[in-house]
Write a structure and sequence with these properties.
By secondary structure, the chain is an all-alpha fold. Helix content is 86%, strand content 0%. The protein has helices at 3-26, 31-36, 40-56, 59-95, 99-110.
Length: 112
């Protein structure tokens, strides 16, 4: 399996999270669930491991659950950041604005 093949599921999750968030924003709905849905299996798994440890009074089990949550957070950023970079590049190329300017404008529009 090549690097792009291994990354494809991650990119698909990222694309689904971005699209779900966009659709939720367009419908004036909460974005939290829309963003998290593609990553739910990873987040639910971390929660289950942590909960089992907590119920059993097993600190090591709780730490394992926390570590799984950190791994899930890494997966989320690893899925979303490359998609965002790919989306940003054409805008930079077509507008000749700097990436920082485009992102600053995007953040300002989000505050509207």
């Amino acid at each position: 399996m090549t690097y792009p093949d291994r990354m494809r599921p991650l990119f698909e999750e990222g694309a689904e999270a971005i699209l779900g968030t966009h659709n939720a924003l367009m419908d004036a709905q909460s974005t939290g669930t829309a963003f998290a849905d593609p990553f739910a299996p990873h987040l639910d798994g971390a929660e289950a491991i942590f909960t089992r440890g907590a119920v059993a009074g097993d600190v090591e089990g709780m730490v394992a659950g926390w570590n799984e949550l950190i791994a899930a957070a890494g997966r989320i950023s690893g899925a979303v950041v490359p998609i965002a970079v790919f989306l940003l590049a054409p805008v930079v190329n077509q507008t000749e604005l700097k990436a920082a300017e485009i992102l600053a404008h995007t953040v300002a529009r989000a505050d509207e």
